[in-house]
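PROTOCOL LOG
Step 1. Enter all chains and additional molecules of the complex.
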Amino acid sequence: MMETWVILGATSSMARGLARALADRGAGLLLAGRDMADLEATAADCTLRGARLAEAVKFDARDPSTFGPILERLGKEDGSLNCACFVGSMPPQADIDADPSLIEGVITDSFTGPARFLTALAPMIEARQMGCIVGVGSVAGDRGRVGNYVYGSSKAGFHTYLSGLRNRLTRSGGHVVTVKPGFVDTAMTWGLEGMFLVAPPDAVAASILKAVEKERNIIYTPFFWRYIMMIIRSVPEPIFKKMSI
Amino acid sequence: MWKASEYAGWGRVHKAQGELARPERARALSALAAEGPALGKRRSYGDACLVDGGKAVDMGRLDRYLDFDAEQGLLTVEAGCALGQIARDFAPRGWLPAVMPGTGFATVGGGIAMNVHGKNHHGAGAFSDHIIEFELETPKGRKTVRPGDPLFLATVGGLGQTGIITQATLKLTACKGDLMMVTERRVPDLETFCDLLDESEATYTVGWIDATARGEGLGRGILEEGETGSGLVPAAKRGKKIPMDAPGWALSAPVVKTFNAAYYRRVPLKGRTVVKPIDDFFFPLDKIHDWNRLYGKNGFHQFQCVLPVEQRPVLREMMAKISKAGLASPLAVLKRMGPGSAGHLSFPMEGYTLAVDFPNRKGAASLVHELNAMTLDAGGRIYLAKDSVATAAQVKAMYPDWQTWAKACDAVDPEKALVTDLVKRLELRTTT
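Step 2. Run joint prediction.
Step 3. Record the structure below.
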């Protein structure tokens, strides 16, 4: 079946992995982000790997005027319309503590910007009665921790949004997959201290695609993070508040 | 941006502790070019891919195809792309990298920096013979480099000392499909082996030598001659992983001797022709991920030299010395090389090239050292991608253009920010 995907935040290595996997099966791709030169390179790569269509399109989570043209371009394609959202930003918590004005940017990048885009996309999926949205959240959104609670809370908000969107789209044949990656070996985590069980981005991309095919609702990737987070969520607050994990 | 890392060459004898950057976007490279040299998949055996106590740039995430001209077979690709990946993706469309080394994990950038050769060197030449152009991010700025440019001669085989190769346009070679028709034949001794290699008219030719055989069987082995083909055979199986370092006895002399004898007899007396997926022919060891761990935690050395054709007797002496030493591993390869290529430090030249692994046991380094000395006396060279024991004097004598090369490197890297452990050990950038 003909499918077209918008990849938001397509410059990230996880997104690049998914774009390649989709290209392999001949999907159409709109690669959205800010670094146009890099997106053009990924578009060329995807075309040579078999994508039916691969175009770089401008997307800035903080600039809603970039949203309309992408949706308009997407609407010109036949078949299913889909979106995978990898957008987010994670400045060090210490920087945020020193400059609270950074908070709005984090929330916009990781939650409200994507939410606004996806809410505008939803009617298009409803109209065609098919299509899938992949929202990439984070295990950091499962419980607020001293180390990155602003980023974590933005992802928690995004998770809740995706849950509601799934509830909405399922009525008209659409589907929403919430992806909660653990530590992934990307530029974001490169050289950070305290990383363990770091997963390669291609493996994460493969598990995302599998979740799309099986219409899973919420996945942790790699899978064992489901159990790690189950434990972390079950620690009673009086104890948790004294921990620094 | 920088990650404190401990890493090793493929032979795992040499290690480095240093900082690595791993950019995911090409635009980051201009700022990194003055910080340290680029590294590919680190498949050089010795210390060519190490910067102990310094910085280096891991190119693994920059591996995209940027352009392909399907009429001419011209592929523009980012430097971190593995050559085996190109082969897998393009062979079904009728194109292969014109030159592929023995591991498909080697990257395009690494292929240029080592000016690698393949099983078709006698006909196709080296990697540098199939480059249309490449982009080089030097500490002094970005340059497009084409064959004939002075910087081309300093960069192909140039050990990464002129800057970061960011992308390259390669002329691929047409192939019939993603299969190989391989004719395998037993060869009873070294003299016959050299004759057969000289006479072989196949596109791809390589010899496996039983480095444990002595006496009349000295230098016996199997000659493989391959041509590309198309058809249907099961795809190559996904690789297996070596989960841990093997114990020291795993590749001890009796084990290897038995293995080699069985491997030799595997091919029927009259020879045979088999059909293989391309990966199995070009990169037989890649199926076993981390096969270097079979040599145990002490690692191994690989010796590779090329000797002029008239030096067959020296080749014989070498084989005798190797089998007598009793250190040999199952991996020994003999090939005939065609005329040499551009590049001040490029390894390939006309003659016989011999590559042998030695587990890093007592006597291994000194054996390689003796073989290096024999190579020099015979007017040959050793391959710097493999080396970990040669001396500065030996290598400078083997590569008489080294000073021209060093000057070209200094012109774009005056601060010597790109020096690797191998370059330091061999004093290649000290122009005195």
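Step 4. Note key features.
The longest helix of chain A spans residues 102-128.
Residues 43 and 138 of chain A are 26 Å apart (CA to CA).
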